[in-house]
Amino acid sequence: MKPEIASPDWNQLYETGETPWDKGLPTPVLAEVQQRHPQLFQGEVMVPGCGTGSDARWLAAQGCRATGVDIAPLAVDRARSLDAGQGVQYVLASLFDLPEELRGKFDLVWEHTCLCALPPELRKSYIQGVYAALKGGGLVAGVFFIDPEMDPGETGPPFGISPEELTGLWAEAGFRVQESWVPTTGYPGRVGRERVLIAAKAAKAA
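^ that's the sequence the OP posted. Answer follows.
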């Protein structure tokens, strides 16, 4: 069941063009992660909160069987229109109420911009959704906005998260954190303010 916590109307934000997270190109961190872990991006890969699909299309270009999931119909429509090669399957769905056909399907979940866009109260539910999507022993890899630049009085989204809380959330949910580092690449203005984390789904949730 989807948690009853107020969240932005994502579809309306796409309608009004208030989508600063949508850069129109994949995050440069993807290439850094691939260089560091050449065998990571393969098999069935899900991108939750895929938006218009830039990261998902990059993953498909590497040979992954990529599935982009988003709750905003307009985002999914735009992602499909931009995917001329139809390399990605786009699904209109919520990670908080994942369709049965997406449960236990994926070798890897690639996370970017989704967790830190959600109200912090939803983080545990989000990670439970990722856990449900992965096969046993499956991996989550992601880049997280640890230190978003805020105006005075601004609270987000995006919502920052400390490295300690980030690691703790995944470990508490039944993941074994394998590696975490500050990437040397990123969108302009984000370098040094993000963190990569890679974690494996344990056999049984904690």
